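Input record (Table S2, row 185):
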Amino acid sequence: MKLVRLRLRLIEEILDDKALNVKVILLVRDPRGLMQSRRHRHFCELSPDCWEPPLVCADLLSDYLAARHIMQKYPDRLMVIRFEDLTLKPNITTDQILKFLKLDARQAFDKFLKKHTTVEVAGVHSTFKVSRNIPFKWKHVLDFGYVNNLQMSCREAMRLWGYKMAHNETHMMSNEFHPIEDYTI
Ligand SMILES: *[C@@H]1O[C@H](CO)[C@@H](O)[C@H](O)[C@H]1NC(C)=O
Ligand SMILES: *[C@@H]1O[C@H](CO)[C@@H](O)[C@H](O)[C@H]1NC(C)=O
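Output record (2-acetamido-2-deoxy-beta-D-glucopyranose complex):
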């Protein structure tokens, strides 16, 4: 199942039910990239927790705390992935996912990756995108004033998830600024 914007602390109830034998993968994204991508999504307009920075950041923070708690309780039932790592290192991340799921499906995955990460097809809902162009597009699309505001709301969540601050507009748009660093959970 793929669920969009289901908060992680609700997942604990499902994991507590031993009969279900569920594994969960949480996909996290840099709030700046998230907001850039959501600007074009109409589903977002009606619910403030989808686009209001303080609400988005509070969710990101509570997901981090919940993930840490759940991983201590069920170390082999929850996996956390940053969207940026998935798109920049699809091979390594795919191996980690398959290992976590104990699935031997490398061939099927390779086929899927090849098809879905190298061709561009129109439409924002398509998964057919050139993935290496996606994660940091916000650096060149978002206004620095907006980014600065978002970063203020998200300071703590960004620090925990390993997302680095842009200091000013020049810094934000420069190639030297690589927005992600290692993080631990
Ligand atoms: C990813 O893995 C596939 C096969 O598993 C290989 O053909 C491809 O060269 C790898 N790509 C990178 C960037 O390592
Ligand atoms: C922008 O930020 C960079 C990195 O912190 C700094 O070196 C530079 O002096 C800043 N530029 C301006 C105009 O403030």
